[in-house]
User: Fold these one by one.
Assistant:
Number 1:
Amino acid sequence: MHEHERGEQPSGATAQAAEWDARYRERDGTMWSGRPNGRLVAEAAGLSQGRALDVGCGEGADAIWLARRGWTVVAIDISDVAVSRAREGAQLAGASVDWVCGDALHTPFPPRSFDLVSMQYPALPKAAGEAAVRRLLDTVRPGGLLFAVYHDLDDEHRDHMKSRGVDPADYVGADDLGGLLGDDFTVELRVVTPRIDPPPGAPHIADVVLRARRL
Ligand SMILES: C[S@@+](CC[C@H](N)C(=O)[O-])C[C@H]1O[C@@H](n2cnc3c(N)ncnc32)[C@H](O)[C@@H]1O
């Protein structure tokens, strides 16, 4: 897939894209810190470089960090606003990333083609169906890693999100993702752990980390 190419966008995804675009536009500047996620940095620092897919890349800090460390990176996000910001950030950083604006659950990436599939705080809707999630997981190549990090939400947090119109139960969580892994994946790590280097004032201070390797 080449830079500026659009991933596939089924109709439900059009509404999601508009919602995420609106969230990103609420901020004059950027929505996220511009720094790569600490948990990904800690994990990837020990890996050999290869091909990485960043699912729900947001404003691109992780993808840019991976690319600058020598990874060949494809990064996808459903929000055009986020991908535009990511692209600008990459230009400033002199990083080469293959940016895709589209729905990660309906974009036909080649199966078994990535050494690392990274999902950092993904917001993939369950409504897309299990087959779509399985297809995304199938992009991990044999010997490669799925590395997914989620916010650890308590009841208060869930209620707060619901009051803002977002029910976490509608999204594919760490346990849902783990349950969709085929027999050819081994879960190497599934842990709740303090978030590394959370942005100041962030309510999310603990992570659920899932690392699975494909045999
Ligand atoms: C909580 S943000 C995390 C962004 C980034 N990974 C980070 O850690 O800063 C979730 C991101 O997923 C994107 N997203 C939501 N649904 C998506 C989908 N179906 N396909 C691709 N990206 C999606 C959103 O636009 C948003 O940028």
Number 2:
Amino acid sequence: MQRTGGCACGAIRFKITAPFIGVGACHCTDCQKAAGGGANYVGLTPKDALVVTKGEAKLFHSKGDSGAEVARAFCADCGTPLWSVPSREPFMPVKLGALDDMSDLSPGMHIYVASAPAWHAIAGGVPTFQKMPPPMPPPG
Ligand SMILES: [Zn+2]
Ligand SMILES: [Zn+2]
């Protein structure tokens, strides 16, 4: 299944050619900035599966909580946050709000809930982590 998305003004369009590795919500303070208030809802996309089909996103570089470089892509014309490019991970978190349709998706985990405001409801039934989840065990 191929997903498509873009920014609010249409200057940037993209497609995702592989299934998401996972869907999650990040409540870190950097993501609160990027999301405009609440958590940052993202689909983790294999790095080679995100294909920009129109325009060019602008990148904001910063250091994440882990100290690793992260670039946050957004539209320079309308400001829509689009995706992030972590330097050390094999995936890119793509904002669910940038997708044309996210109705079938829901977060499978919440991370950095330590910095979530008390008023932010977090749906039960999915794992929550104070900061990053522990590293995944090696396959096999
Ligand atoms: Zn735009
Ligand atoms: Zn975050």
Number 3:
Amino acid sequence: MDKLERQRAAESAGHPEWAELPDTMGGAWREDVTQYFTGRSCPHGHVAPKTRSGGQCIECRRIKDREYRKTPQQMQYMRDYMRERYRREREQR
Ligand SMILES: [Zn+2]
């Protein structure tokens, strides 16, 4: 992908500044920035910068973070639900 294509991809994603990022992981380390932008979409179809450590698309990471945060609440909900059910079953006896 050439520079112009990358710039166009950044603009159509609504972030023209992404074109200023390095286009490779190695470039990100060299320039000492935490992200790089290839201009290509990730396997999930996001056109977004990738992190220099691991090369994960930042959009995928955000989604994953959100799911991770959701999990403890769901577990707490299940615990409360099971406890309540257990209590009710005991009372019925
Ligand atoms: Zn992604």
